[in-house]
Design a protein that fits this description.
This protein is of the alpha+beta class. It has one domain: Beta Polymerase, domain 2. The protein is 32% helix and 24% strand. A six-stranded mixed beta sheet has the order 3-4-5-2-1-6. Helix 1 packs antiparallel against helix 2.
Length: 128
């Protein structure tokens, strides 16, 4: 059983807030802790309508996590094109996609055995 939202690590909650600040859509939190050979503890996956919005979400996540969880990404990929930005915080990996790229890579399908953590309503912005 996964932890309740309040029990999640600060880094996860801060990253979710950063995505939410920029109105990231179809936000999903996957708990990978119960999976053998998982690359981290949590995946955060969200999408945006433009490369500008992906870039802004990445900056907001970086700022929130730095200020609230006193952490910075170990590695960031994709920020040049902002179609898929991956922010690796070691225990948490944040994936920020443009809608088409998210559908193509289908991370939720690839990690279908992970537990999807229910998020509070404030984070649930569906794509239009």
């Amino acid at each position: 059983m996964t932890a309740s939202f309040a029990e999640l690590p600060q880094i996860v909650r801060s990253a979710l807030e950063g995505v939410s600040d920029i109105k990231g859509e179809n936000l999903v939190l996957l708990d990978l802790r119960g999976l053998e050979n998982a690359v981290c503890d949590f995946f955060i996956v969200a999408e945006a309508q433009s490369t500008t919005q992906v870039s802004a979400m990445s900056e907001a996540v970086h700022k929130r996590v730095r200020e609230e969880a006193n952490d910075k990404p170990w590695h960031v990929e994709g920020s040049q094109h902002s179609e898929w930005v991956l922010m690796d915080y070691v225990s948490v990996v944040v994936h920020l996609f443009q809608r088409e790229a998210r559908g193509f890579y289908d991370l939720e399908g690839l990690w279908a055995d992970a537990v999807s953590v229910p998020l509070p309503q404030q984070y649930l912005v569906d794509a239009v």
